[in-house]
Amino acid sequence: MYSEENTYDVALLYMVFSLKKIQLGFSLPSLALLIMGLASCAPQTTNAPPQGATDSPAGTTASAPGGSTITIAGAGATAPNPLYQRWFQEYNQQNPNVQISYDSVGSGAGVKRFLDQTVDFGATDDPIKEEDRAKLPADRGKVIQVPSTGLFVVMAHNLEGVNYLKLSREALCGIVDGSIKSWDDPKIAKDNPGVKAAPVTFVHRSDGSGTTAIFTRHIEKACPNWTKGAGKTVEWPTGTGGKGSDGVTAQVQQTPGAIGYVEYSYAKENNLKMASLQNKSGAFIAPTPEAASKSLEGAQVPADFAVSVPDPDGKDAYPIVSLTYLLLYENPRDPAKAKAFNDFLRWAYSNGGKSASELGYIPLPADISTKAASALDTIKVAAK
Prior knowledge:
By secondary structure, the protein is of the alpha/beta class. It has 15 helices and twelve strands.
């Protein structure tokens, strides 16, 4: 581009030469070449920002090259899905060129899709196992596992006439192993006077589930007679299955006398009644974010962030609590996508706590979120 002043001068020159072309002996094609040469000598200007101007703050803006849209796809755990959807929407409002989709298919399926490399990130409530880490092809580097938020699992129930159900460890174990079949069983009735006889229907997950892993790790510690182990899938001795957190929630809602384990936000959103559970210290603790956060206080945080508190010691601590995780590739196939997702995560660590609290999750302690943000530096992303 050339200046308005130079444009005017060239135009004027063209008019003069056009009028005098016979006297001067120039043809119009020759004149055009002359004018192009003059224009190329004109000073160039750009739309660059004033000196000293800066880009948007780091962690709040991520833009695709050339202003195009970056689409990022993930899949995995159902428990944090409400929070992820809220975060993705909020971030997209601030960064319209970055669109993040998430398929809430369960932790087991999320880990599989991540290892199959059909997604840009995976999500799991159960920390990835070493044998699964080894399945990732060497050219993708290491599996980078970082926490996103804390969450807790509740026993949601549909027991008519009982709004404040209390379950001792003995009663919880009996419901899960099938030895308690009626709600007026003495192990339940002693802490819930007046409870009426009705069949107990235990609802569990039917798919590979990190929520199941969190729940069964607690059962394994709290129930001396439990023999089915702990993990994303177990052979349940009793009950009926529901797919995903939504499936368990629906089964409990639709079945009188039902009780099942779900992440707190699902029970809260669907107005399900939740039992107070007896913790390791013997206290009955109502499921609240405040009580759940006490379970993470002082927890040891290993390098891969696989925090384990299956049966916390605190006298006021809610007993079934965990972190939930995102799985990332050290060597992403699309570094620009990886950088955009890293920018989103840094934004979430700095700005996502408010939404987490509103939905009933446990915002990460500052020291854990700082370490998690630093772990993102090991991912080979596109240069700024």
